C-alpha cells in the first residue's frame, strides 16, 4: 500500500509535467486530413503498426477513405482540429495522460483495448464518454482480433466470426499431404510445451498445468516460469514443432479473448490445448485443438495420452492444414480495404458512429455478449 501511494504520487506529478509538455503551443502544420489522435502510446508505438499512420498507409491498405492521419503529438494542432481520439483502456493511463480539456461536438472518442477485460481499466468517471469501441471482442463497433483463419485456396477470411462456415469433416487429399503430416508427426519427440512469462495468472493456469504434470503429462515449461529456454522466436517454433501439444492457456478467461499463443502452436505444427473464455468454434477449425476449459485437467490428460498412442487420430488434428491457414488478423485486411483502421477513417469521415451496443461502454465491456453474465469467467 505504501509503495502504491508513492507510485500514485509519482504518476500524478508526471501527469502535471506531461500536461504542460503536451500542450505546448507550437504553430500547427496545415493539413486538410482528418486527424486521429492517439492519446497515449500504444505499447510505445503511436501508429499501431499501421505503417506511419499517414494517408499513404490508408491508400496502401485499400481503404475507401484515405484522408486520415494517425497523429501522436497533441501540441501539433489546436484541440478542435482533432476528429477522433483513441483512448487506451489500460491501467492508470487516465491518471498518467489525463483527458482533453474541452470536447467539441464533432469529435469521436474511441475506446480501444487489446488486453483482456480483466487486465484493462475504465474509470467510472468515463461513463458517457466514449462513442465507439475498438477491441478484440467480436461485438465491438470495430473488431480487431489477434488472428484470422483463412481459406488456403481463396484466401478469404473464415474466422473469427459469429458463425463461421467450417468444413466439418476433413479428409486427406493426396499422398503428398499424407507424407507431410507423417513427417511432421515422426519428428515429434516430446509431449507438451508451454512458453510462459507471467507465472501468476488470473485464470489459474499454473495449477492446471501442475495438475496435468501430476497426471503424467510431461510438460516442458519455457521462459521465466520454467527451466527450458528458447532465446529466439524462430528457433522457438522449431522447438515447439517437436512437441505433440502446445499449451495455449490465456492469463484470463474472457469472451473472445484468444491471443497469438494459439497461432504459435498452429504455425509450429503442434496441436494447441486452448484454455480461453472464448467460444472456440468461432475462432478455430473443428478438430484442430483441444478445449482445455471444456475438458478439464483429467479429461485433457486422458485425451493427450490417447492421441499420442493413436497416431491416426492425432494426424486428423492436423488435417485442417490442407484447407486453412492461420495468420495475424491484418494479414489480408492490410491489402483489401478491410483493415480496422479503414473503419476508423470511415467513421471519422461519415460522422456515422456505428454503435452496435445499446449500452454504456463501461457496462458493455464488463458484460457478456448475450447480456446474461460477466465478460470473463476468471
Ligand atoms: C459522443 O458521445 C458523447 C457522450 O455520450 C456525446 O455527447 C456526443 O454527442 C457523441 N458524439 C458523436 C459524434 O456522436
Ligand atoms: C458457440 O458458437 C457457435 C457458433 O456461433 C454456436 O452455434 C454455439 O451455440 C456457441 N456455443 C456456446 C456454448 O455459446
Automatic annotation (TrEMBL):
Keyword annotations: Glycoprotein, Glycosyltransferase, Golgi apparatus, Membrane, Signal, Signal-anchor, Transferase, Transmembrane, Transmembrane helix
Main subcellular localisation: Golgi
Presence of the UniProt keyword Transmembrane in the record: yes
SUPFAM superfamilies on file: UDP-Glycosyltransferase/glycogen phosphorylase
InterPro entries reported in the protein's UniProt record: Glyco_tran_10_C, Glyco_tran_10_N, Glyco_trans_10, GT10-like_C_sf
Membrane topology summary: Single-pass type II membrane protein
Enzyme class of the recorded protein, top EC level: transferase
Domain Fucosyltransferase N-terminal span(s) in chain numbering: 32-146
Pathway where this protein functions: Protein modification; protein glycosylation
Name of the protein in question: Fucosyltransferase
MF GO annotations: fucosyltransferase activity
Record's signal peptide: 1-23
Annotated localization: Golgi apparatus, Golgi stack membrane
Every Fucosyltransferase C-terminal domain range: 186-364
Entry's EC annotation: 2.4.1.-
Similarity section: Belongs to the glycosyltransferase 10 family.
GO CC list: Golgi cisterna membrane
Amino acid at each position: 500500500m505504501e509503495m502504491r501511494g508513492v507510485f500514485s504520487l509519482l504518476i500524478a506529478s508526471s501527469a502535471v509535467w506531461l500536461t504542460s509538455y503536451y500542450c505546448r503551443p507550437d504553430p500547427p502544420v496545415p493539413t486538410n486530413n482528418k486527424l486521429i489522435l492517439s492519446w497515449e502510446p500504444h505499447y510505445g508505438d503511436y501508429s499501431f503498426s499501421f505503417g506511419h499512420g499517414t494517408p499513404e498507409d490508408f491508400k496502401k491498405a485499400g481503404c475507401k477513405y484515405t484522408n486520415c492521419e494517425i497523429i501522436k503529438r497533441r501540441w501539433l494542432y489546436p484541440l478542435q482540429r482533432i476528429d477522433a481520439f483513441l483512448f487506451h483502456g489500460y491501467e492508470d493511463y487516465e491518471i498518467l495522460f489525463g483527458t482533453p480539456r474541452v470536447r467539441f461536438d464533432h469529435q469521436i472518442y474511441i475506446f480501444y483495448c487489446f488486453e483482456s477485460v480483466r487486465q484493462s481499466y475504465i474509470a467510472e468517471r468515463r461513463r458517457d464518454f466514449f462513442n465507439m469501441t475498438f477491441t478484440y471482442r467480436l461485438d465491438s463497433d470495430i473488431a480487431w482480433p489477434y488472428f484470422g483463419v483463412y481459406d488456403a485456396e481463396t484466401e478469404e477470411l473464415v474466422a473469427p466470426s459469429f458463425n463461421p462456415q467450417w468444413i466439418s469433416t476433413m479428409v486427406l487429399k493426396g499422398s503428398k499431404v499424407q507424407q507431410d503430416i507423417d513427417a511432421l508427426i515422426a519428428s515429434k519427440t516430446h509431449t507438451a510445451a508451454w512458453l510462459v512469462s507471467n507465472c501468476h495468472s488470473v485464470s489459474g493456469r499454473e495449477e492446471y498445468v501442475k495438475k496435468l504434470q501430476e497426471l503424467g503429462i510431461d510438460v516442458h515449461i519455457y521462459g521465466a516460469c520454467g527451466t527450458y529456454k528458447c532465446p529466439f522466436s524462430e528457433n522457438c517454433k522449431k522447438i515447439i514443432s517437436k512437441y505433440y501439444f502446445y499449451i495455449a492457456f490465456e492469463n484470463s478467461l474472457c469472451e473472445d479473448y484468444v491471443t497469438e499463443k494459439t497461432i504459435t502452436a498452429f504455425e509450429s505444427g503442434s496441436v494447441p490445448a486452448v484454455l480461453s473464455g472464448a467460444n472456440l468454434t468461432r475462432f478455430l477449425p473443428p478438430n484442430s485443438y483441444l478445449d482445455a476449459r471444456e475438458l478439464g485437467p483429467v479429461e485433457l490428460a486422458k485425451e493427450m495420452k490417447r492421441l499420442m498412442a493413436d497416431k491416426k487420430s492425432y494426424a486428423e488434428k492436423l488435417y485442417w492444414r490442407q484447407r486453412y491457414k492461420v495468420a495475424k488478423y491484418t494479414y489480408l485486411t492490410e491489402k483489401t480495404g478491410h483493415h480496422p483502421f479503414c473503419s476508423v477513417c470511415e467513421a471519422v469521415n461519415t460522422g456515422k458512429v456505428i454503435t452496435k451496443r445499446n449500452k454504456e461502454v463501461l457496462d458493455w465491456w464488463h458484460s457478456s455478449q448475450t447480456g446474461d453474465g460477466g465478460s470473463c469467467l476468471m
